[in-house]
Amino acid sequence: MKQIDRLRSLGLFEARVPRYTSYPTAPVFSPEVGAAQQTKALAALDPAEPVSVYIHIPFCERLCWFCACRTQGTKTLSPVESYLGTLEQELALMAETLPEGLRMGRMHWGGGTPTILPPAMIHRLAQAVKAVIPPTEDWEFSVEIDPTMVDREKIAALAAESMNRASIGIQDFDPLVQKAIGRLQPFDITRACVDDLRAAGIRSLNADLVYGLPHQDATRLDDTVSKVLDLGPDRIALFGYAHVPWMSKRQTLIDEEALPKEMERYMLSELASRRFREAGLESIGIDHFAKPGDGLAIAARTGRLRRNFQGYVDDSCATLIGLGASSISRLPTGYIQNAAATPAYVERIEAGQLAGARGHVMTEDDLLRARAIEMIMCEFRLDLEDLRADHGDAADRLRPEIALLRDRFGDMVEVTGETLTIRPEGRALTRIVAKHFDAHVPEGARYSQAS
Ligand SMILES: C[S@@+](CC[C@H](N)C(=O)[O-])C[C@H]1O[C@@H](n2cnc3c(N)ncnc32)[C@H](O)[C@@H]1O
Ligand code: SF4
Fold first, then answer.
1. Where does the chain bind S-adenosyl-L-methionine 1 (predicted)?
2. Is 120 one of the annotated binding-site residues?
3. The domain containing residue 58 runs over which residues?
4. Is 328 assigned a ligand-binding role in the annotation?
């Protein structure tokens, strides 16, 4: 059987599976776990362990039709400024809660579009965070940047606050594809943004691309890939377009007839991946590429690659504190998500409490499976012996799943002793393999397609 038929027979094109940026996944979170648990877990943090901080800015000047991110469009800065005031209040509440001496090893601003903030607000936000959780000496500060919504002054303000990594949204450079996703982004504007970021000292630059967009075909994507390589990013994220109009209403503007069909979609992802590898980038996890000297590639080679809500990271901080509407914190006790809608988030903070609204308390079995799934997503392998180091004999609980995968996915995985490895030809099935270790089946959750 041809490889593609075999992948199809194992469910690649039909399966709807999580992207596993956390385990359990967010649909499993319960409203029983909220601000009270958040306050307790934050107060109990060990100040000797630096934390990561994520700040969500849910605003964009334009709303791209394909986008599934939690964000809202605005033509004026007044809602942004008012939101910044709420973030400052949230930080003040954190200051009352966090242990003395806690430091920040990483900070990431995402969205939405953080570069909607003008320079004065960039400084206000960065200073407010640093006042509550001062950075460590070798901290890293990364920001998601829309090249059409940034200028030199904003980049200078971010650089003055020590931004040293950036991620730019590209998606596709073809004019027909851009029109079909409601996102016009000329190459020369993107080039100018990259030049400004490099001149500002950014040493690790990521570019986001999406395959499976309307009207994308091999010729158009090939051209986009050439242009992206010309920009010389250190990392590339190549996401499969998640068409989830039941979650993201703006996607109803996408012409479904123009979406590449399953087989074309698979070929598009193969084409871009091949070109990136030929250009000397290393393949990282299921959808990232990085120059060999970039931190992400080094982490992957040394077994330190991790997966969190930002995707693949080389971040070693165990704790992630999320600020802003819909942000998720990963605390030693489990996950807590802030109220997702901005008005609900603001209401909670203004009432003088933290904004945690849903969450999950990790059991010992969750911790074991979370690490197993992370290993599969990061390294395409699961080694019970490695798991035993932190989880003891509980690791043996995963033997039935490994046996099932050996029987069902025989030619796509290899099982030797206590190790399951996904073969290179089976890597498109990684999320499906990971799902075998997921013990939670959230009611009514609808995920995006696996391919
Ligand atoms: C917050 S946005 C990026 C920052 C900035 N707002 C911009 O547009 O340049 C995060 C990224 O998520 C990805 N993304 C958004 N919606 C997606 C979808 N439906 N399917 C796959 N990837 C998606 C895009 O690659 C996008 O660049
Ligand atoms: S892709 Fe970026 S700019 Fe476009 S709607 Fe999503 S977050 Fe906003």
1. 54, 111, 144, 328
2. no
3. 29-323
4. yes
